[in-house]
Design a protein that fits this description.
heterodimer, A: 405 residues, mainly alpha, ABC transporter involved in vitamin B12 uptake, BtuC, 2 domains, two-stranded antiparallel sheet, 17 helices, B: 394 residues, two-stranded antiparallel ribbon, 2 strands, 71% helix, 3% strand
Chain lengths: 405, 394
């Protein structure tokens, strides 16, 4: 009884959150609406890749391929058949989401098969290769729009999508979390830790691997279907290798295997470039211009500061207060280097005449953040930790044993 | 079924096959140079160095800037012909290799060394980060619109080429072509004479006849050329192949015959035991990065100078991926495997373009075929062509 009670309340809370978000964001700017939709999609993508990479330990770096399969199958079918039936746009979204998931699940099955034979880096390459092959094939198929892309406009205007995107994200999180918490997930973890040993203990290794690929890719396909229908335009360029890499980065940066980490990293990594894109002077409302010397000085200063922080992290064993002081010192040294170098570099005429728009720097800042985070915290933001209520109560001063009791 | 296949084969122009194979070999030699860098780094560190393609890109820009400072910038040339010598080419090659070597060393020191004891996937993400960083930071500082290309005039041998005839054309066709050409020349002379004399009556009809004869002659000559099987290799491409061979021989010497090379092989074989045996592992890794990157630099200089690709900060992505596929195809970590894989990759790529003649639209799949070959090979030989797949012990 308690079980169903908790479940019912969770499901209601989840749906309430999704529809609440929908109503709240609809009132705001259309720009924000789009960002919230995309953030939800990236959460789904990151968590579903985490199932393959982090939980089952199959090194897949071609996740964008499944995203693309979902997007193109839903887009094509919508263009062909939406006009001939009487489902409303919202119901059609649900149908297409399921269809995209189904198609991507099939492709996930096909890609999962080589994982039975290949390991580690070789598997990574094959998944990457499948992604590229699919992309190039789509590029060469005229009915799918070829390299120019395809318009997906069955509804005329973009549908309301936040509720379904975020519901999908929550379902994805719930599936992965429940897998980890129940006996159904143990084979996945066992395969990750040691294939040979788990096989000796009676785990059906091939079945586990392929299942993880199918589930993970189905969620990515569902996300792709929603993306196609919401964004109304898809092209092979939307699903390049870079997208796979960014999804993989979300998983690793959040902490491989940690669902909470994937969610946090997905939101953060999605938000950083978007925020930088819109960066402008708050008063004059024009894009901020950064002079060349200070940009170069900042780059070098960041290297100095990060190197110092890393050195302190690795070499200093002392009390925490002192270590914190040293960190502050390192950052201060970085700032000092920045000012010094910026003044010095102003003397270089070739550099002094350059100036960059802040928005143009977004990918540079993004990749630098990536490198720095990985250098300073290689196990990911949350490592293998998960969000839990016990942790929250610990945060508020109650010991976990009391919370559980 | 058989009939269809035969028809398909009949549609192929086999006379250009040897030329295509040679082109593939030349392209493949550049891929092989880049693949060597991937495979060497993988061999010692078990790290896929995604930033290798970007080192390649920076190498091509280094060659471009060298050519500019040698006086071959578009402003300095301004449409005029400037003599060049082979010294310029060697200078560009050396600068490009040195710059790439230094960049490889810097990347290793700043980004990979601190990750040495961390999980491999973390290093991989760092590598992706470095690759993105170089691409986009390069986009800020490097000239890119319009994409600059190294001036053709740097290459002093650009008009010279080697021609080899493998199978001569049918003799009677040659004779016919020769006769037609002689006749056309004769008519041309007559026409010129008539024009000089200013005889307007038959001038127009004579002009038309002469034109027809000329067309017939050149038509026959084209037939002769297509019936004969031969090879044409420009000196530039030949030099590219020779340089690649020399560099590979040098690499073979370093790896097999020197003390450093023995240490490299030891580290590749077993990282920890090599360290226990007194190998300075850090130094060996640096050297590996420097050598691998310098080879990419050589490849980049030749790619940019001989094949004259327009340069962009994203130039390294496609050759980088292809070279990487080549390295995996040959068995990653295996040096001869990288060379074999690179050459195979180049040949497969040109063959796909050749087959486009019978299967229209096939060349659109050029970049996908590399991966298809790779997956096909990996399914049957999971360790690559020359690699050995290890049996896992419990």
């Amino acid at each position: 009884m308690k079980f169903w009670g908790v479940r019912g309340v969770s499901i209601l809370a989840g749906l309430g959150f999704a529809f609440g978000l929908e109503t709240m964001v609809s009132a705001g700017l259309p720009n924000i609406y789009r960002l919230v939709v995309l953030a939800g999609l990236f959460i789904t993508l990151a968590v579903s890749l985490n199932l393959i990479n982090g939980i089952t330990g199959q090194f897949s770096i071609g996740h964008a391929a499944f995203y693309m399969v979902g997007a193109y199958s839903a887009g094509f079918v919508s263009n062909q058949f939406y006009a001939q039936q009487s489902l409303g746009p919202q119901l059609w979204l649900v149908v297409m989401m399921v269809f995209g998931a189904f198609m991507a699940g099939i492709s996930g099955f096909v890609v999962g098969l080589p994982s039975l034979r290949l390991r580690g880096d070789y598997l990574a390459i094959v998944t990457l290769g499948f992604g590229e092959i699919l992309r190039i094939v789509v590029q060469n198929i005229a009915p799918l729009g070829g390299a120019y892309g395809m318009n997906v406009k069955p509804f005329g205007s973009p549908p309301k999508a936040i509720w379904i995107v975020w519901t999908l994200a929550m379902v994805c999180i719930a599936v992965c979390r429940n897998l980890l918490r129940t006996a159904h997930g143990l084979p996945f973890l066992a395969v990750r830790e040691d294939e040979v040993a788990s096989s000796a203990m009676g785990v059906n290794v091939p079945k586990t691997k392929v299942t993880s690929f199918v589930i993970g890719s189905a969620f990515a396909g569902a996300a792709g279907a929603l993306f196609a229908l919401y964004d109304t335009f898809i092209s092979p360029d939307t699903f390049k290798m870079d997208v796979s890499f960014i999804i993989l980065t979300m998983v690793v940066l959040g902490g491989t295997g940690s669902i909470t980490g994937s969610v946090l990293a997905a939101v953060a990594l999605f938000a950083i470039p978007e925020w930088l894109r819109t960066l402008q002077d708050p008063v004059t409302k024009v894009a901020i211009q950064i002079p060349g010397p200070s940009l170069v000085a900042t780059m070098l200063a960041v290297i100095v500061a990060v190197a110092l922080v890393k050195l302190i992290q690795d070499r200093f064993y002392g009390d925490k207060g002192k270590k914190l002081g040293l960190y502050v010192g390192a950052v201060g040294a970085g700032v000092a280097v920045q000012f010094l170098l910026a003044a010095l570099l102003k003397g270089v005429p070739q550099l002094a005449k350059l100036s960059f728009e802040a928005a143009a720097l977004r990918m540079v800042i993004f990749s630098a953040t990536l490198i720095i985070l990985m250098l300073l915290r290689p196990q990911g933001i949350l490592a293998h930790h998960e969000f839990s209520w016990a942790w929250v109560s610990k945060l508020f001063g109650r010991r976990p044993s009391e919370a559980n009791a | 079924m058989l009939h269809d296949t035969l028809n398909l084969v009949a549609g192929l122009d086999f006379s250009i096959l040897p030329q295509q194979l040679v082109n593939g070999l030349l392209l493949g030699s550049v891929y092989a140079l880049i693949a060597l860098g991937y495979t060497m780094v993988y061999g010692v560190l078990r790290l896929i160095n995604f930033a290798h393609g970007e080192v390649f890109m920076l190498g091509s820009y280094a060659a471009l800037f060298t050519s500019w400072s040698l006086g071959f910038s578009p402003e300095a040339l301004a449409g005029q012909d400037k003599p060049s010598s082979w010294i310029n080419l060697v200078l560009m090659l050396v600068v490009s290799m040195v710059v790439c070597g230094l960049i490889g060393m810097a990347i290793e020191f700043l980004a990979y060394r601190p990750m040495r004891n961390q999980p491999r996937i973390a290093s991989l993400i760092t590598a992706i980060g470095v690759s993105l960083f170089i691409q986009y930071a390069g986009g800020l500082f490097l000239p890119q619109s319009p994409p600059p290309a190294i001036s053709e005039q740097v290459n002093p041998y650009r008009n010279e080429k080697v021609t080899v005839t493998l199978a001569p054309p049918p003799q009677d066709l040659v004779v016919q072509a020769k006769d037609a050409r002689a006749k056309a020349d004769q008519m041309d002379k007559a026409y010129e004479a008539a024009k000089a004399k200013g005889d307007p009556t038959s001038l127009e009809s004579m002009r038309q006849e002469t034109q027809a004869a000329k067309n017939a002659a050149s038509n026959l000559e084209t037939q002769v050329a297509s019936k004969s099987t031969g090879l044409t290799v420009p000196y530039g491409q030949l030099g590219m192949l020779l340089t690649t061979l020399v560099l590979m021989a040098l690499l073979w010497f370093i790896v097999q015959k020197t003390k450093t090379g023995r240490a490299m092989r030891a580290v590749a074989h077993d990282f920890d035991s090599a360290a226990l045996m007194g190998v300075n592992v850090g130094r060996i890794i640096t050297i590996t990065f420097v050598i691998g990157s310098a080879l990419a630099g050589a490849g980049a200089m030749m790619y940019a100078t001989v094949l004259r690709t327009p340069l962009t900060p994203f130039l390294g992505v496609t050759p980088g991926v292809k070279a990487f596929v080549a390295a995996v195809l040959g068995g990653i970590g295996n040096i001869p495997g990288a060379v074999l894989g690179g050459i195979l990759m180049g040949i497969v790529e040109t063959l796909v373009v050749w087959l486009d003649g019978v299967v229209p639209g096939l060349s659109g799949y050029k970049d996908a075929v590399a991966f298809v070959v790779l997956i096909a090979v990996l399914l049957f030989r999971p360790g690559g062509l020359l690699g050995s797949s290890k049996v896992e012990k419990v």
